[in-house]
Amino acid sequence: MTWTWTAPLLLPLLGELPPARRPLPKPGAVEATLFSGEFQERFWARVQTGEPGECWEWQGALSDGYGHVRVAGRSTPVHRVAYLLAGHTIPEDLVLDHRCRNRRCVNPDHLEAVTSRENILRGEGAAARAARVSHCPRGHWYGGENLRVRPDGRRVCRACERGRRR
Ligand SMILES: [Zn+2]
Ligand SMILES: [Zn+2]
Asked: Out of the domains of life, which is the source (predicted)?
């Protein structure tokens, strides 16, 4: 797949590289949508905005816990749209993390661009819980010489590994 589009807004907005079959939006189409008053009016009409410190929840339909709107023909997560509308950019190798852990929230103050690994570690998933564990099931420290990290990212306790081999 060749990826030639380099407009600063487009890549981060889409959040992922599109399948090769799908045509890319025309240059400028994303920006034209985002910066139109009509789009912004319709967008914020579907958000329950509150105080700066509160969660501003998306009132529209959710899929996988996240709201989406069409931007230049593409379904785009609403928290990414809100973040860009607030004047932030999202570097293309980063993902947007909900610091409040509320997926419906589009309050730009609650969003932060982080690496995808960081995002996983902060989350509530199994990988995140596993990563926060500091010792193996038998109590050996996951660190220093005793730690081996497998190519898939899982940690192995060398003491236990040696014990099993004996
Ligand atoms: Zn929030
Ligand atoms: Zn161990």
From this structure: Bacteria
